[in-house]
Amino acid sequence: MPDSAEIAKTTIDDFREIQRYMVIAREENATKTYAELKEKYISLKALLSVLGVNLTEIDKIKE
Asked: N or C: which end of the chain has fewer CB within 10 A?
């Protein structure tokens, strides 16, 4: 079973990737895609908060 550090690293990587896709979707005005990505973004953000990760520097979307 992965430890907290491994889970945090994987989740941070996923969070950054989702944010990149959200920026692209917003630029392309892909509202349905953005909405789906936002659901994943919220879940990852919640998990990172539970893990105690400071989101100040890594959260580019700020929603």
From this structure: N
The C-alpha atoms of residue 42 and residue 63 are separated, in whole angstroms, by 8
Query: What's the whole-model pTM score?
Result: 0.89
Burial 24-56 (b: 16+ CB within 10 A, else e): ebeeeeeeeebeebeeebeebbebbeeeebeee
Q: How deeply is 61 buried, as exposed, middle or buried, from its count of CB atoms within 10 A (0-12, 13-18, 19+)?
A: middle
Alpha helices, H only, the chain: 4-27, 31-50
